[in-house]
Amino acid sequence: MSTNNTLTAKDFSSDQDVRWCPGCGDYSILKQMQTVLPELGVARENLVFISGIGCSSRFPYYMNSYGMHSIHGRAPSIASGLKAANPNLSVWVVTGDGDGLSIGGNQLIHLLRRNFDINVLLFNNEIYGLTKGQYSPTSQLGIHTKSSPLGSIDHPFNPLALALGAEATFVARSMDRDPIHMRDILKKAHEHKGTSFVEIYQNCNVFNDGAFEKFTDKKQKASTTLNLQAGEPLLFDNGEMGVRLNGFQPELVKLEEGYSINELWIHDPTDTTKAHLLSRMFGDDVPRPFGVLYEGKRFTYEKAMQDQVDASIKAKGLGDLDELIKGKNSWVVE
Q1: Is 196 within the bounds of a domain?
Q2: What residues contact residue 261 under an 8 Å CB cut-off, 6+ apart?
């Protein structure tokens, strides 16, 4: 990729009016993306944002780069084709909990398992915002919406558990109201070689306001969130509480009650088993993990595909497209 260190956040902002509802969490995500990009050293002509359908999917309009507002749920497939055709591009898929986990669920899991070098940002507001407030695949059980007036009886998807189940090689979580943390995660996602999956908690202040307030509110955040750092113990509540493992069962302990910091769970993002345990820390009585849950190494699809092509050309030559179309058998009809 070409590098231009003179670019600023403003250079990545398009001339389009941003048409999200005032106060939407998407504004913060857009701002952090534009702020981070100059630090990544990616030239605008090598940068592509591809989206599906939904509020989040307006993202490409607001980026001064190449992009495509594609069709519902199909952004992963379009991004895969683009990456296969031009591996030098930095490709970002922007999707939402509806677009990415309902009609696009199948597209997403196959992108993750194939491991194209693509970054997926899933904006999760636990609601259908663009279509005006129906419950989504991540909406909480019992939520009252326009499409579930008596309360949703659907068990919600856990996006990080889904990504790990599809054997994604990079799985992380951030939130719209923690810009410093989000910028760090975006950088790490870009640096990862393979498909990176980042779930971003995003507040929809019109149809599901305050869904993540206990994680973003300054008075509650310390006791409800775990900031994952590789090689560091799992601490929360200003260091007064920690998480230890009793076999494969996470336990919350209070350090002043005789527990040592040496007994605590040390975060290892290369451990798939522990990553699965972290993804399941989802209840009201446990802190929610934020950061990189898992990062592993596996060959990328586009590299393996190109290796096959190169090996075939070496063994058989370039071939002839006309001859391929004609085939070996022919006949004349008189």
Answers
A1: yes
A2: 233, 235, 242, 255
Give residue 147's domain range: 9-232+281-301
Instruction: Work out whether the CA dihedral 10, 118, 72, 70 comes out positive or negative.
Output: positive
Q: What confidence tens digit (pLDDT) does each residue in 150-165 have? A: 999 999 999 999 999 9
| 282 vs 201: CA distance, rounded Å | 13
How many separate domains does the chain show? 1
Give the pLDDT confidence of 196-212 residue by residue, as tens digits: 999 999 999 999 999 99
Nearest 10 degrees: CA dihedral of 121, 108, 92, 177? Answer: 0
Return the closest-CA partner of residue 78 out of 57, 55, 102.
57
The backbone torsions φ and ψ at residue 145, rounded to the nearest 5 degrees and listed phi first, read: -135, 180
Q: What is the C-alpha separation between 157 and 138, in angstroms, rounded?
A: 5
Is there a domain that residue 240 lies in?
no
180 assigned to some structural domain: yes
> Which one, of 240, 250, 237, 241, lies nearest residue 279 by Cα?
250
C-alpha closest to that of 122 among 193, 17, 224, 51: 51
Whether residue 251 lies inside any domain: the answer is no
